[in-house]
Amino acid sequence: MRKKILYYAIFFLILALFTFYYEQYRIPKVVGDIQDIKKENILCVTEPIPRNTIVNDEILSKHIKAIQVPTEYVFNNPITAEELIGKKAGFDIPNGTYLTKEYFIEEEEGYKDGEQSYSFPIKSSNAMIGKVQPNDYVTVWVRYPSSNSKDALDKNDSEVVIPYIKLEDLVDEAGTSITNGATTIDHAVVKSNRDIVQDIEIARKYELFFTKYGENEEYLPVKTI
Predict the structure, then answer these.
(1) In a 3-state reduction of DSSP, which class is residue 102?
(2) Which helix (H) or strand (E) holds 126?
(3) Residues 6 or more apart whose Cβ sits within 8 Å of residue 182
(4) Distance between CA atoms of 198 and 114, rounded to whole angstroms?
């Protein structure tokens, strides 16, 4: 009986020693594997960033923070803090968003040779709907009087004046931008050359309107003075 107890004791002692040494060698290996995982800094939004915001040091410190994630989870052109300064948000960016280059556009300064800022009046009731915003690309149309009536206007009697142009801004009578708190929208502003200005000026004796590029079924009328 004593020999059997002794054998059991030796067996459990050996098992305990084996388990102890196994854990001693296993834990450093697991820790080493974890330490070997490559990580990379990414930028995340901590407070929402409104569309058209120009990123500066204040925005960077108050709205954005850097976190580390495994490199295998980094995708879609991550942007660095250095690259972010001076960029303009092309969209409303919600809290928690992982920032990539696709969210931002270059803030263009000045005009190319022959370009100028050109505005034409729009109806506030339609502009305030929010269907079209600064930095959207729009198609500018002219709508001629219907052949049935000298004064009536028919959507079928329309043609494209400018097929594709960037809407630089929407402003009130005082020139205040919608992005700076304008409560009424009276003019659309585009960056244009002499040919574009000439085409729109010729068409302005009729009714002008524009649509968001690619969505020509719905439109926002633009009245001439």
Answers:
(1) helix
(2) helix 124-127
(3) 170, 171, 172, 176
(4) 13
